């Protein structure tokens, strides 16, 4: 069933969009990521203009993350205090990111920037997560082995310390603020929730337990992506409501399924699956950047006439 998207100005199969939303919702519930790192490139692939994909993808992330966080709140695996600190940084970062996005859109460089950001961030983070998760799985197969103790590094030496009871931490608020700021900028430029950056940072930099990280990440993602969507809608007018509704319906249903699956899996297995998915998307985008420049070439030749 084809449906016309008024802002994107293309016709797309409605069931395809519901299915995409559902898949991203499952990932959201399982891993605590908004799923934008996968959704935005998928929207590119089915012909949605990049500016519309970035802005509208954020709406779907809000819906699936909200559905997922409700499930985690019932299990008491959300650190609301840590989530609020991350959120403050995230809102500031989103505002900065929108200014940068609008400037690059004016210069005509948004598409290239979005793709390059994906390749760089997904490649680095996916690689690091895969290596660490693989080591954790190997350790778990050795009888009597214990995970290495976390060292008290720079994070624990910084001032402005605060107790985070749910996470069992007593650390400075500066690192969570910086993580939130980074994620906010990425949310605005790349149309992502930023969970693929936030999860590794919360686990490896802040030392939060994995079971708390997922729900807390979703809590922060809801508000940052909602704020980002509002800014895109009022400054760029690139939010397609029809597209957003179809993606959101699929996302809300998928998130509930994903949360149930995630609870039954081991933390290290969840992390390695997420790492493999991140690397797969990175590889596809890098391949497209290097091997498929035909559109740029045709635009260049068109300018000579």
UniProtKB/TrEMBL annotation:
Q: Which UniProt keywords apply?
A: Cell membrane, Membrane, Transmembrane, Transmembrane helix
In the bilayer, the protein is annotated as:
Multi-pass membrane protein
Cell location = Cell membrane; Membrane
The UniProt transmembrane annotation reads 12-39, 51-73, 85-106, 112-131, 177-205, 212-231, 237-258, 270-287
Q: Where primarily located?
A: membrane
Specify one Pfam family: TauE
GO terms for cellular component: plasma membrane
Q: Which family does it belong to?
A: Belongs to the 4-toluene sulfonate uptake permease (TSUP) (TC 2.A.102) family.
Q: Known PANTHER family for this protein?
A: MEMBRANE TRANSPORTER PROTEIN MJ0441-RELATED (PTHR43701), MEMBRANE TRANSPORTER PROTEIN YTNM-RELATED (PTHR43701:SF12)
Q: What is this protein called?
A: Probable membrane transporter protein
Q: Which organism is it from?
A: Octadecabacter arcticus 238
Print the organism lineage.
Bacteria, Pseudomonadati, Pseudomonadota, Alphaproteobacteria, Rhodobacterales
